[in-house]
Amino acid sequence: MNLSALTALSPLDGRYAAKLQTLRPLLSEFGLMQHRVQVEVEWFIALSDAGFAEFKPLSEASRGLLRSLSLRFSEADAQAIKDIEKTTNHDVKAVEMWIKGRFQGHADLEAAAEFVHFACTSEDINNTSHALMLKAAREQALLPALDKLLQQLGAMAHTLAALPMLSRTHGQTASPTTVGKEVANVAARLATARARIAAVPLLAKMNGAVGNYNAHLAAYPGFDWEGFSRSVVEDRLGLSFNPYTIQIEPHDYMAELFDAVARANTLLIDWARDVWGYISLGYFKQKVKKGEVGSSTMPHKVNPIDFENAEGNFGLANALLGHMSHKLPVSRWQRDLTDSTVLRNMGVALGYALLACDSLSRGIDKVEVNAAALAADLDAAWEVLAEPVQTVMRRHGLPDPYNQLKEFTRGQPITRELMQGFIQGLALPEEDKQRLLAMTPGSYTGLAAELAARWKA
């Protein structure tokens, strides 16, 4: 059976493949190979600039040729490396050999070929490549997806800032809010989560087999290898240097990053469930698209599938991200290989997160508020004014306000007439009494509208 969208084991490469086109070249095996080539090339060029008698500075033409190996890296190049790996049974060594093979016909490069991968262990190449992959995925895919959601939520918060809505703490009627304020709450949480994701430093090391520059100093004892490695990591690759490692960079920053992504996913699960509930209550309606079917047997249905898909895929992402964040910082002694197989699933974990963001975004675009349902729900919940009435009674020292309202409202249907009749009988200053009599569930929203209207990322 040939591999296709229909035969792929993962829905990320099958049913949903088209939605992950941005991520695929960044976190796939192809992406890993391309970044390995980039790292090997930058290390090689840096060595030529280090002042070693045996390796003179490369010409600009040679530098351009070398950098083009990663900039123009193709699927054919990746396949060529895989073909070499069939013999070496070692992926990084295959990259080294492929690069050396590109030197043919270039005398200065051929003469310096043994400085490719000089003093490096495979993890010097892999850890920097993984950090570059995550940097690209964060900048080009993950943060833009969250920014799109923030833009949508911000627009909703402002547009619906003053539209009153009945709150439902514990699922029961509670002090009213506005639709915009509830959306602003989510946007504020997501903005904080997004900032945490963006702030995680991406660390890398290039310090040899066990992190001590052993081979480096054996070749050039008087050279500042730590400073040199730092300059390659920071100045040439744009990452943050980690000076204390074993054979592997210990992946603590990855755990921090994956935990930060999982926190964003979790709060978006919370939002997806809330919207699902609001659709169920009739607060939100879903736009109908001609030709779509909601149920195979019930023609009337328009199911909230985008929010359900988002919830499911965020959950899958968090299961993988959680395993990665717990597993990756743990390595037996100076290293074991359990991190390698796990790291190959970074694209799967972040792929499910991006797929969920896409579903959520499409779901948001499809919903519109049902103002009539919101108003009807509020008008049927005059009991929520028990809170402001008993609070004003407390201010003026009336006896046992809480219990008076508890006996009056708890477990009983309260209408406008009943609530206003209760207020009329209170010994309150006339100004406060008239203010309470003018109050409705829809007007009792505090600062909700103002808070929603002023929110910005």
From TrEMBL:
<dbReference type="GO" id="GO:0070626">
    <property type="term" value="F:(S)-2-(5-amino-1-(5-phospho-D-ribosyl)imidazole-4-carboxamido) succinate lyase (fumarate-forming) activity"/>
</dbReference>
<dbReference type="Pfam" id="PF08328">
    <property type="entry name" value="ASL_C"/>
</dbReference>
<dbReference type="InterPro" id="IPR024083">
    <property type="entry name" value="Fumarase/histidase_N"/>
</dbReference>
<dbReference type="Pfam" id="PF00206">
    <property type="entry name" value="Lyase_1"/>
</dbReference>
<comment type="pathway">
    <text>Purine metabolism; AMP biosynthesis via de novo pathway; AMP from IMP: step 2/2.</text>
</comment>
<dbReference type="GO" id="GO:0044208">
    <property type="term" value="P:'de novo' AMP biosynthetic process"/>
</dbReference>
<dbReference type="InterPro" id="IPR004769">
    <property type="entry name" value="Pur_lyase"/>
</dbReference>
<dbReference type="InterPro" id="IPR000362">
    <property type="entry name" value="Fumarate_lyase_fam"/>
</dbReference>
<dbReference type="InterPro" id="IPR013539">
    <property type="entry name" value="PurB_C"/>
</dbReference>
<comment type="function">
    <text>Catalyzes two reactions in de novo purine nucleotide biosynthesis. Catalyzes the breakdown of 5-aminoimidazole- (N-succinylocarboxamide) ribotide (SAICAR or 2-[5-amino-1-(5-phospho-beta-D-ribosyl)imidazole-4-carboxamido]succinate) to 5-aminoimidazole-4-carboxamide ribotide (AICAR or 5-amino-1-(5-phospho-beta-D-ribosyl)imidazole-4-carboxamide) and fumarate, and of adenylosuccinate (ADS or N(6)-(1,2-dicarboxyethyl)-AMP) to adenosine monophosphate (AMP) and fumarate.</text>
</comment>
<comment type="pathway">
    <text>Purine metabolism; IMP biosynthesis via de novo pathway; 5-amino-1-(5-phospho-D-ribosyl)imidazole-4-carboxamide from 5-amino-1-(5-phospho-D-ribosyl)imidazole-4-carboxylate: step 2/2.</text>
</comment>
<dbReference type="InterPro" id="IPR008948">
    <property type="entry name" value="L-Aspartase-like"/>
</dbReference>
<dbReference type="InterPro" id="IPR047136">
    <property type="entry name" value="PurB_bact"/>
</dbReference>
<dbReference type="InterPro" id="IPR020557">
    <property type="entry name" value="Fumarate_lyase_CS"/>
</dbReference>
<dbReference type="GO" id="GO:0004018">
    <property type="term" value="F:N6-(1,2-dicarboxyethyl)AMP AMP-lyase (fumarate-forming) activity"/>
</dbReference>
<comment type="similarity">
    <text>Belongs to the lyase 1 family. Adenylosuccinate lyase subfamily.</text>
</comment>
<protein>
    <recommendedName>
        <fullName>Adenylosuccinate lyase</fullName>
        <ecNumber>4.3.2.2</ecNumber>
    </recommendedName>
</protein>
<keyword id="KW-0658">Purine biosynthesis</keyword>
<dbReference type="InterPro" id="IPR022761">
    <property type="entry name" value="Fumarate_lyase_N"/>
</dbReference>
<feature type="domain" description="Fumarate lyase N-terminal">
    <location>
        <begin position="16"/>
        <end position="312"/>
    </location>
</feature>
<dbReference type="GO" id="GO:0005829">
    <property type="term" value="C:cytosol"/>
</dbReference>
<dbReference type="GO" id="GO:0006189">
    <property type="term" value="P:'de novo' IMP biosynthetic process"/>
</dbReference>
<keyword id="KW-0456">Lyase</keyword>
<feature type="domain" description="Adenylosuccinate lyase PurB C-terminal">
    <location>
        <begin position="331"/>
        <end position="445"/>
    </location>
</feature>
